[in-house]
């Protein structure tokens, strides 16, 4: 418990430094665009591949579990849409990005720590925490909602492809199902989750990397800790946000 | 000028520095020497605020660094250049971007003025041809020279060099030593070099502080050190059998 409070306090202090006034906005703006490419656009490929198969599998599994004649076929489209918007696109994508982006951030910042690049920034008078971490958090918070939206469309598209290529549901039923009883608030709820998760999958690995010490081995351990901790905290945050917004 | 008064530092029970007082004059190459673990790197880190000392004063031209608030410290650090043992160049930037970085962050120079300054310092360290390369593409000596170029690009008043010759061959070491010395004289900087390289001591040691087990054991210059009878200094300078025989 004492260790948890120690790290929580250290994390809060680090975030306080991260969100302090930047020395020169033009430099931060340039770094923000670099990070948007590195953390956001470079993740687009994996997001699309996973999303299309995710939508396809949800459609097939839903169909496989609906064996009652009383349940209409359009339920398959409805379930695919609801599962995708409410849970799979925001949460599963966040967990995948926690692995991809989180390990990248922790190892990048950790390597900068052990090779004294962070000390070099500090000696120059640069707020190293803000310079290194703020553009990453901002890039993820700004771009991840778009990634989630793309994931939603592609995932539902994956179900559509299954409807076209198999006879488990007709295209007409699937399309009717994905339009049925649509609540725009569910997308808002997914966006709220995405923004919170984007903050977690960048700030937690950044914290681990920033306080890495010693050798390359320690950087690897910090990277693993960053991914594991951000994944667990995403699941906890997912529960809390769901309880607050959907009930 | 940097003046250190009664500086002490402990890590837990272990005293690393005890009551160190020293003056590093401007326009001189000041060396801090001592065996590994003697406390010389800790002293340098205390001087620039990477490690907080337990007691004492560090005066930069009369300004007490340890009594400054965080903003004043950050402002003073813009007057400090530091060459790290491993160069600490930013991996994601080219040589040119590394050297321009302090100018981008802390000056209001135009792009043209910054480019002129970058070209000037890269020419000074004889690396004009390498401006578009990344640190991973450079040799150890080139990295040190880029580190020096980055440290001096904003025309600092104070320059710290931590083991500038580590990992370099003797010839390249002399090139780096001479470069540091010449830049110090040209720019009237207060330069502090942490080293245990005896070639550096003999080549550029205008002022030498010898630290032994956290204490100031001796001070002098590169001529005095060859004639001293101080036992700790003799053990350090004439560590090898060859040097002992040469002295005899």
Structure description:
- The complex is a heterodimer of chains A (247) and B (248).
- Chain A is mostly helical.
- Helix content of chain A is 85%, strand content 0%.
- Chain A contains nine helices and no strands.
- The model of chain A has no long low-confidence stretch (mean pLDDT 93).
- Chain A has helices at residues 2-18, 25-40, 44-65, 74-114, 117-124, 128-165, 171-179, 184-210, 216-246.
- With 248 residues, chain B is α/β, with parallel strands linked by helices.
- Helices cover 38% and strands 25% of the residues of chain B.
- Chain B is built from nine helices and ten strands.
- Chain B has helices at residues 40-47, 70-77, 95-106, 111-124, 140-152, 170-187, 198-204, 231-237, 241-247; strands spanning 2-11, 14-24, 29-33, 55-60, 63-64, 80-83, 158-162, 190-195, 207-212, 215-220.
- In chain B, the strands form two sheets. Chain B has a six-stranded mixed beta sheet with strand order 6-7-8-3-9-10, sandwiched between helices.
- In chain B, helix 3 (95-106) packs parallel to helix 5, helix 4 (111-124) crosses helix 5 and helix 6 (170-187) runs parallel beside helix 7.
- The model of chain B has no long low-confidence stretch (mean pLDDT 89).
- Chain A binds chain B through residues 23-24, 27, 111-112, 115-117, 119-120, 122-127, and chain B through 48, 50, 73-78, 80, 82, 84-86, 88-91, 101-102, 104-106.
